[in-house]
């Protein structure tokens, strides 16, 4: 496939494919200094993330909605010799931001290592094509690069997802890479020296802390940026509305106008349950066990839109989101159900303008 041409049948194009137009326009207008190995200047990378208008009037859509300073710190970190760790509770756009940063800085967001309990050292360093290894012995040709090794060789951004899920000894192989910027290959008596532009963006979930601690030696090699949950209802409604709009277009859902009122209601329910307090500050609530983040709100609305478009009258209504909300809230069939019933009867029921929603929830609860 030709670079920059999107295959419309791909379910989810990479950021650098989907936003190739914006990236090209930014590069065109970008006359600020670019750090070695970067496709864009830090200013342009930040504009790509936060959105803006270029001198010729063309629009850059915002990818991340939140404090500008956080993105500036993240981008500035990448221009130093330190790696970037994006930390936060689930659903705060850590993965999303990491993908877009890699796309904007090196034009490639695919050099990705997914951290799991089973991640082996080969996934971080290199492995071998065993057929070749047996036939020819250790050689360059038999070596299988990890995404990290490729990033070092080409001077690009490597991404590590869920860093703290990797076993500690695998995490520790990163220490040499990050401090010496080389990856020795003793079997071939060589090493790969990182080129300028190489850096690492890792994400970790602070809910999962304790899965595997990040060693202090490794932590010192990262600058940490904590991505927060949205400050206000309005911010969160804005994020959900934008993402739902983009997703709806990408999934080619029939046009169903995403009712802002319905989005606001979902976001309000999630914020109240998450925070353990009603929005007027009067009633304390129990919080359910699951995460009710912006990401869950986005998926509840998207599923609601599919329901409205295919089975309803095309307008997003309470009945289209009720099932999704209950499913998101009630993760533990016993304790969460109690929390939900209490919320439904003491809060939802008391709001006259929420009557349709109350009824719809009663039907699916
Ligand atoms: N502040 C925000 N700005 C823009 N999009 C956001 C924001 N917060 C959440 N989202 C959206 O939420 C969705 C989920 O984000 P993402 O998967 O990056 O979360 P995460 O922090 O990596 O979660 P996890 O810890 O579960 O991996 C994305 O589609 C993203 O667009
Ligand atoms: Mg993630």
Automatic annotation (TrEMBL):
Gene3D superfamilies: P-loop containing nucleotide triphosphate hydrolases. Residues 84-222 form the ATPase dynein-related AAA domain. It comes from the Bacteria. Signal peptide: none annotated. GO terms for molecular function: ATP binding; ATP hydrolysis activity. SUPFAM superfamilies: P-loop containing nucleoside triphosphate hydrolases. PANTHER family: MAGNESIUM-CHELATASE SUBUNIT CHLD, MOXR FAMILY PROTEIN. This is AAA family ATPase. It comes from Actinomadura rudentiformis.
């Amino acid at each position: 496939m030709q670079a920059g041409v999107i295959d419309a049948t791909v379910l989810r194009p990479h950021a650098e494919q989907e936003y190739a137009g914006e990236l090209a326009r930014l590069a065109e207008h970008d006359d600020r200094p670019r750090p070695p190995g970067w496709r864009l200047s830090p200013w342009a990378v930040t504009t790509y993330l936060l959105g803006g208008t270029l001198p010729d009037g063309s629009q850059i859509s915002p990818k991340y909605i939140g404090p500008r300073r956080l993105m500036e710190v993240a981008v500035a970190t990448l221009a130093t010799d330190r790696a970037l760790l994006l930390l936060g509770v689930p659903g705060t756009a850590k993965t999303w931001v990491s993908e877009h940063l890699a796309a904007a800085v090196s034009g490639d967001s695919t050099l990705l290592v997914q951290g799991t309990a089973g991640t082996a050292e080969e996934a971080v360093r290199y492995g071998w094509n065993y057929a070749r290894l047996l036939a020819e012995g250790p050689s360059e040709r038999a070596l299988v690069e990890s995404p990290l090794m490729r990033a070092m060789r080409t001077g690009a951004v490597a991404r590590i997802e869920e860093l703290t899920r990797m076993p500690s000894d695998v995490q520790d192989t990163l220490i040499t890479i990050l401090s010496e910027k080389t990856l020795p290959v003793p079997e071939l008596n060589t090493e790969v020296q990182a080129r300028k532009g190489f850096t690492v963006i890792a994400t970790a979930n602070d809910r999962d802390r304790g899965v595997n601690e990040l060693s202090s030696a490794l932590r010192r090699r990262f600058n940490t940026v904590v991505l927060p949950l949205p400050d206000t209802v309005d911010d969160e409604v804005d994020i959900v509305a934008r993402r739902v709009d983009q997703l709806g277009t990408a999934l080619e859902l029939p046009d169903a106008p995403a009712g802002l009122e319905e989005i606001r209601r979902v976001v309000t329910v999630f914020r109240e349950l998450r925070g353990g307090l009603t929005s007027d500050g009067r009633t304390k609530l129990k919080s359910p066990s699951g995460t009710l983040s912006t990401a869950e709100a986005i998926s509840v609305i998207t599923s609601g839109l599919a329901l409205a478009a295919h089975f309803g009258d095309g307008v997003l209504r309470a009945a289209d989101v009720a099932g999704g909300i209950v499913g998101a809230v009630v993760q533990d069939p016993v304790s969460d159900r109690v929390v939900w019933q209490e919320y439904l009867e003491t809060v939802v029921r008391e709001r006259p303008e929420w009557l349709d929603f109350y009824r719809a929830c009663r039907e699916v609860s």
